[in-house]
Amino acid sequence: MKQEDREAIFYKGPEPFDRETSRATLAYALGATLYMPGTRETIAEDIISHKNTGLASTVFCLEDSIGDSEVSFAEENLTTQVKKIYEASNNVETLSRNLPLIFIRVRTPEQILRLMEKMGDSAKIITGFVFPKFTSASYKYLEVLKSLNDQATGPFYGMPIIESPEVIYRESRMFELMETKRLLDCYPELVLNVRIGATDFSGLYGIRRGPDVTIYDIVVIRDCIADIINIFGRAESDYVVSGPVWEYFTNGGRVLKPQLRKSPFEEYQGTNGRNGTKIRSQLLNKYVDGLIREVIVDRENGIIGKTIIHPSHIIPVQSLYIVAKEEYLDAVSILDNSHGHLGVLKSHYTNKMNEVKPHHNWARKILLRAKNYGVFNEQHNFISLFTEDVHV
């Protein structure tokens, strides 16, 4: 992004981070997490060349994205790709601080140890591992992760995916969620966030949402997500919950009336004569507006981050987590006045009441988002980044 564009769009720019940044910050930093099959032979080239603009985190997948017969090849391929990225970072072809956070989605705890042995020193560029179909009985993943960190080869983090039948089935859900949380609570410093596997949940019912609906329109999944947030999203838990994958990356033709609201686009006047109405029209063709609607609902329910499967999703998701200036000023005011002398104060824009105690945790999360994604200037919002000439 050109400096003048950045200054025009951002009141406060996003701060840099890498795998050595504190866990509390990284948990909010993943944003649009791009999955890449472990069999892909251009992984290193894409990462080193920064092919995907705005990419903050990526997962090299050895689980459902590859066939069972491809596991051995995928392990060897990933080892080669990781070594190439590591060598490039050492040769200053790409600075390690400019690398996205890199995770590997494994099938078993034993696979982690096997990969670590194969990767050797190059594993230093890995931020952690994704644990699929995680349940309260999946303690071996965490034991292996702890042993790696105890050997001072870390930090390495884990990201469990909640997607088992025990959770989606109502009769066992609350017991399983509480037991899973009890397990994770034994390793809080190792858990970066808790992810939701809505595709596996849907598969248990023979359901697949279409591009014109969000996951929240699928009632059995919505109810389960509500309970996951209820257990892991509590202030005292301090877990970050990430949203389920959006699996569409082309628009095969609209069936329903587009639901991407016109008003914010009509009010926006972009650079080089780009007007908001034209941008909206292009978005409805280039992206699935359902993704945008789903991320907005994710965000309003306290979910931070989104699994994606196509680079075209990066900018929409990342931009939707940038904080509005009004939110930022409210959050700063609330935290600045948490000394106990005031209980209620008028917002900076004099349009709402800010209560110091009830809004304290919200304000803290807003500032963590602001740190990682930045703060928009007035008259700017997520639409400001949906242009071909301006990128995060």
Q: Any overview of this molecule?
A:
By secondary structure, the protein is of the alpha/beta class. It folds into 2 domains: 16-320, TIM Barrel (Alpha-Beta Barrel); 325-385, no CATH class. It has helices at residues 3-9, 23-26, 43-48, 71-90, 109-119, 139-150, 165-168, 170-184, 198-203, 219-232, 263-266, 276-286, 289-300, 314-320, 325-336, 360-373; strands at residues 10-12, 32-37, 57-61, 101-105, 126-131, 157-162, 194-196, 241-246, 306-308, 344-346, 353-355, 375-376. The chain has an 8-stranded parallel barrel, surrounded by 5 helices. It has a two-stranded antiparallel ribbon with strand order 1-12. Strands 10-11 form a two-stranded antiparallel sheet. β3 (57-61), α4 and β4 form a beta-alpha-beta unit. α8 packs parallel to α10 (219-232) and α15 (325-336) crosses α16. The longest helix has 20 residues, at 71-90. It is globular and about 60 Å long.
